[in-house]
């Protein structure tokens, strides 16, 4: 029996356990769509290819299992931003793109584009399937690459004549590996000779601290991290912009490792004698391992599960190739450290929370500060609800609010937000995937107005799939993060080309059949968000705020403070 190439693709992905495909349906994709329909794999149709990519990325981050983004050749070009966002977060999304006919390759075929070359620097693996009989093999290879070592997105390009042509349904299945189901990826176990001196350094420390990155999330070892940190009395900080690993309410968790917007992190780094960074990179967020982020007074140890990360972390004092979970197992054998160290960090966090609340400016009248908005939104939520953050200054203020609300006892289900590239427009797609996986929990997005304009068309997918989410717009009338930088950079202390007109975002949702509400006074925020949640509809709370510079933007625009972004 013969089947189309698109059917072979669908069956190969079904064998891997793929549960969701995100697409903008196009003619090039039809054979694959027929295959997914035949295999019973749900397909969610997005209004834009970039949205489809963000949906697949969000689903992959939440489930830690690859989802598929399927687009045509022209859609590939518009899916590139989503590919870049996934690449920055090591999210192993499977990007599948239809391409121009293989038979006439290089002759200016219909919608011909060199997608393989374009995707190569943004993925771990980018190839064109030039033989339909090898589709299952190519899927198996791409899947293995995506999940091995330094995880990341992969790209498969399938020419239209391969997608539509017919092949034996068991093509190449008489070759190994016979079992092409989803197998557990290989883990790097620490070499005893390399591990022993690392453990000796840590055991002799007086004030060790842990900085955890997204490698811990992808290795599914965040619970080990929390248990270890509590038992050994080691404070844990999270790398900014990456997946949150420990609950804000955890006894071991102290907040983001960000010396600009979070003073307790700076204090801890200045006092620590050993810093253990696990599953993260010494990139610009970590000031490449240098002062003032990492003072010369401490020893910096980097533990990573892949040689790619090890190479990026060459500036560390000590490096160890190890799966995070395996390293935590070895670390658990050490004697506990002085509990006074972790307690002093908790006191610093408490003082910071109290002082930050006191320092929220009294703007007067109906003017709403973005930090107050972010705090009030979380106050309106219930425990285990999901919070999605999107924007520039909105993101930074919301991170501060998460720390405050967590210290005060708010137990969110989880948090998603832009990654390394701070890409605007991911909020609504991430919220849709969070609701898809957590249908009985409320999912709330707090988004800057500019961020919503970047990806707001994705809201149609929420209506289409009956996935009610609540979008709170931090509406300050422009690109406030950029405006604040301009006012400190330009000689006339003004901003330029960053303003929006007064956009009735709430009315847009009402026009689509959802719930909308305009908020112009601070005391109306909490009841408005609660009414939006209770409506059971996809809803918008449009909050008029006043632009106010966040600590991180202030730091990165100040001539007196060396910024980690430099």
Shape: globular
**Largest beta-sheet characterization:** 6 strands, parallel
Quaternary structure type: single chain
Helix and strand composition category: alpha/beta
Q: With helices defined by DSSP (H or I, 4 residues minimum), what is the helix count? A: 23
CATH topological fold name of the largest domain: Rossmann fold
Helix content: 40-55%
Question: Cα-atom Rg, whole angstroms?
Answer: 24 Å
- Between the first and last Cα atoms, what is the distance in angstroms? 60 Å
Strand content: 15-25%
By CATH, the architecture of the largest domain is named 3-Layer(aba) Sandwich
CATH superfamily grouping of the largest domain: Thiamin diphosphate (ThDP)-binding fold, Pyr/PP domains
